[in-house]
Structure formats: structure tokens, C-alpha cells
């Protein structure tokens, strides 16, 4: 994946725990890169090993790390680095979700080797179904964190994200999230 994702891990770790901890994570991961470059492609294993080592270090699980990274990606990376692209995604939470399938189309311009996820969005009346298709394994909770980040971005406090199934625990070739709203 492009280095921007590992840069995001670096930023999240230094923000929450300081540069010392990042150096420690790099060391424990046995990684030969300290500063990832935004537009350079790295083997996906860097991202997985960094997330795993961080989970071990913080005595939590990798799902929790990926969820935090997803939220960080939306609020602290995408909105800050690419405000215009994020604004073009829509003016409301609903609109943004329905525009997700074409979101990465514009990103190919600056990241030509992108292997982007694909999304299919369905309106079920009182819920919205978000199908997440990826060529990669194990990023379900990154996507979940991104959906939580989008909820935060629009202050959609009453929205909930429920993971219905994943491609590893179903016969489907994708993960499915249901967005519902707390009734009050
Ligand atoms: C301006 C904002 C964004 C930029 C610049 C961006 C760019 C990228 C890049 C460079 C990657 C790495 C893929 C690769 O190197 O092959 C990626 C992956 C990913 N992006 Fe985006 N993205 C943005 C917003 C979003 C949004 C709003 C979502 C919505 C949920 C999203 C979902 C994902 C997911 C789930 C992946 C993981 C890759 C996979 O599933 O295979 N991104 N994105």
C-alpha cells in the first residue's frame, strides 16, 4: 500500500504515545523504514506488522488498533490533508455514504498504482447497507473505523455501525456493515 497509510500509523502513535514509542514499534517490528513516504508503495506486510506490534505494545487487539486507525484516517488525515476531496464527497452523512463507490476514482490521479476498495451502498428504508469489497484480507476493522470517522465528521451522533458478516465468516466475497439510527 502507499506509504500514506503507514505515515498515518506513525502520526497516530506519536500523537497518542510520543516518538519514543514509535521508535520502539519500528524496532520490535523489525522494519527497515523509519519515515514512510506518502507516494511510495510498500508491501502490505508493513502495515499489518506495524498494527500487530502496536497492539502487542498497548496490550490490546489488532481490531482495536485498526478501528482507531480508520477513525484517525478520516478525521486527522483525510479531512486535514484533502479537505476539498472530502467536501466533494457530500454535504450530509447519507450523501457521503452514497458517494463512497466513486470516492477513490479521483484519488487515482495522485496515486496511480492504487488498489482501491470498492463499495456498494443500499438503502433499506430504516438502515443503509455498506458492502466493502477489498482485494486485501484483514482490513474489516479499518473500514469499520472509517465509517465511525465519517459519523463523527458529520456529527451523526445517533448512527450506529453494525458488522453483519465478513468475507472470512460467510460465503460472500465482501464484508457487510449496516448503518442504523438510535430511535428516540
Ligand atoms: C481524500 C481522502 C482519501 C484518500 C487520499 C485515500 C487514499 C487511499 C490510499 C492511498 C489507500 C491505499 C491503497 C493502496 O495503496 O493500494 C487507501 C485505502 C483504503 N481506503 Fe481510501 N482514501 C481516502 C478516503 C477514504 C474514505 C472516505 C474511505 C471510506 C470508507 C476509504 C476507504 C479505504 C479503505 C477501506 C482502504 C484499505 C484498502 C483496501 O480495502 O484494500 N478511503 N485509500
Shape: globular
Bound molecules: protoporphyrin IX containing FE
Question: Count of DSSP E strands?
Answer: 4
What is the total domain count? 2
CATH topology of the largest domain: H-NOX domain
Q: How would you sum up this structure, described in words?
A:
This protein is an alpha+beta fold and about 180 residues long. It folds into 2 domains: about 60 residues; about 90 residues, H-NOX domain, CATH 3.90.1520. The chain contains 7 helices and 4 strands, in the order H-H-H-H-H-H-E-E-H-E-E. Strands 1-2-4-3 form a 4-stranded antiparallel β-sheet, with helices on one face. A hairpin with a 4-residue loop joins strand 1 and strand 2. Helix 1 crosses helix 2, helix 1 packs across helix 4 and helix 4 crosses helix 7. The chain is globular, with a radius of gyration of 17 Å. It starts with a helix and ends with a strand. The model has no long low-confidence stretch (mean pLDDT about 95). Protoporphyrin IX containing FE (HEM) binds next to helix 1, helix 5 and helix 7.
Amino acid at each position: 500500500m502507499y506509504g500514506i497509510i503507514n505515515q498515518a500509523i506513525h502520526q497516530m502513535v506519536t500523537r497518542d504515545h510520543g516518538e519514543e514509542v514509535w521508535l520502539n514499534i519500528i524496532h520490535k517490528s523489525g522494519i527497515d523504514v523509519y519515515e514512510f513516504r506518502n507516494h511510495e508503495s510498500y508491501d502490505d506486510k508493513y502495515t499489518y506488522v506495524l498494527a500487530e506490534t502496536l497492539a502487542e505494545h498497548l496490550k490490546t487487539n489488532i481490531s482495536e488498533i485498526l478501528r482507531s486507525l480508520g477513525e484517525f484516517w478520516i478525521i486527522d488525515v483525510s479531512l486535514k490533508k484533502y479537505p476539498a476531496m472530502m467536501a466533494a464527497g457530500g454535504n450530509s452523512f447519507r450523501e457521503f455514504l452514497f458517494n463512497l463507490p466513486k470516492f477513490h476514482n479521483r484519488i487515482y490521479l495522485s496515486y496511480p498504482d492504487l488498489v482501491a476498495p470498492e463499495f456498494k451502498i443500499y438503502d433499506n428504508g430504516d438502515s443503509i447497507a455498506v458492502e466493502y469489497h477489498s482485494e486485501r484480507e484483514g482490513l474489516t476493522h479499518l473500514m469499520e473505523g472509517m465509517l465511525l470517522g465519517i459519523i463523527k465528521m458529520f456529527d451523526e451522533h445517533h448512527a450506529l455501525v453494525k458488522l453483519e458478516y465478513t468475507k472470512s465468516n460467510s460465503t460472500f466475497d465482501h464484508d457487510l456493515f449496516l448503518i442504523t439510527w438510535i430511535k428516540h
